[in-house]
Amino acid sequence: MLKKTLTYFILFNLIQFLSLIEINCLTIPFKPTSRHLHAATYVDNKLYILSGLDDNVNEPLGAVGIGGKQFFYLDVSVPFSTSALVWNDLSKDNIVPSQIGATAVKGGANNDTIILYGGRNLTQVESKSLIYTFDTQTDSWNVPIISGESSIKRRSLTAIIDYQGKIYLFGGKLLGYDTYVNDMITLDTINLIWGEGSSINAPTARINYGATLLPNQNIIYIGGGDSLNQSLPLNEVYIYDTINDIWSVKNTLGSIPSNRYGLSVVLGLDGEQVIVFGGLGNQNTVISLGEALYTLNINTFEWSIPNVSGNIPNCRYMHKANVIGNYMVVTFGAGYNESESDVLLLDISNNNEFVWTTNFYPPPPTPAPAPAPPSTPSKNKSAVIGLSIGAILLATISIGTFFLYRRNKNRKVKVSTLHIPNGKLDNQSGQKTVETTNKVDNQEETTQVQP
Fold first, then answer.
1. What is the 3-state secondary structure (H, E, C) of 290-306?
2. What is the DSSP letter of 60?
3. Mean pLDDT, consecutive 10-residue segments, the chain of 451 residues?
4. What is the domain extent for residue 72?
5. This model's pTM is above 0.85
6. For residue 2, is it within any domain?
7. 271 lies in the same domain as 399
8. How far apart are the C-alpha atoms of 192 and 148, rounded to whole Å?
9. Is the same domain home to 324 and 411?
10. CA geometry: angle at 235 spanning 232 and 241, to 5°?
11. Which regions are flagged for Polar residues bias (predicted)?
12. Which residues, 6 or more positions from 28, have their beta carbon under 8 angstroms from its beta carbon?
């Protein structure tokens, strides 16, 4: 008996120990590799990160595709600190090959689908698919069938989507060719149709530029790198009118930033300025801390260096920036060290002073419109019954009045048209009979009898 009890005790403790091991393994937090030239897409309180080139130089050459295969997101519906990021791994269901230089936006019929375009594979076999889509409601990838004439796959460009669900893809580098282009291709993400925009007066061919959609549905293009590996100047910016399919150029003034590519551009919360961060200068020179952050007034096209407080980070390049709530959220990139977080937060809620911070607080949920006060069923029922009875009484009175009117008129016709010239006694009955004349005034009869 003692032996059996001891055996059960050992087995029980062994099972508990194995369970603890399993639980500890399952709760190991996911830590993505550092990367640049990745895609970052904000959809329904989640910031999705995909692709990119690993920055860990200690890894063997064959491992460069690890970061590009990782697919994960950051939940921004709750507060968090950049010193303790909680990433959620979705890599096991990812069908997109490891790649760099891809670009992604939120679109689709319900505006909840990630549309990923282009990029260069880090594997031996280059994927022929131009577009991959990720349904954020079902967490599933797909390769959609798109009609229309497509172009050669390209990389290192920025996709911009308008309010009607159309993506604009300008420039980039053609895969398989050492060729930079400056044409505009479009994709209707709702009907899945390729198209093209105007290239008349377009910027020169470039890659790794900054771009964002403005409130008037124009797209602004800033900086970039040319085919000679030179960064382009920011003393002029290019505007593409998505409504009229027209390019224009604007000369800038003020504190014009130095040439740069690999920068990020986002629209400020006031809708009156764009915010530029990071990039590389000529000969791949790193931008200094004091020149990493600029704003451009989109009405006057004047550059300025904003007032900034907080712990100013190193300048990054080939990163991504998204506006979420009150923050410009910068993810990954190159040019920073391990002492900094993979995510930077710039509070842009106050135009007089931007603040670099380590704490994120999501905006309060938008209150739903107050519902109309519910009507009392008994009152509605009484009102319906009352209206019904009233309608019936009104109809009854109208019909009764009509028939009484007809009856009285008919009587008047008969009385006015009968004449008794004389009376005769019926010989058989002894009663007096009345003779009617045939003389009747037709007009009078018609007037008196006609209903």
1. HHCEEEEECCCCEEECC
2. -
3. 46 45 60 94 97 69 65 98 97 92 97 96 81 97 94 95 98 92 97 96 98 98 95 98 98 97 98 98 89 97 97 96 98 92 98 98 75 49 46 51 51 42 42 40 34 33
4. 30-360
5. no
6. no
7. no
8. 9
9. no
10. 90
11. 425-451
12. none
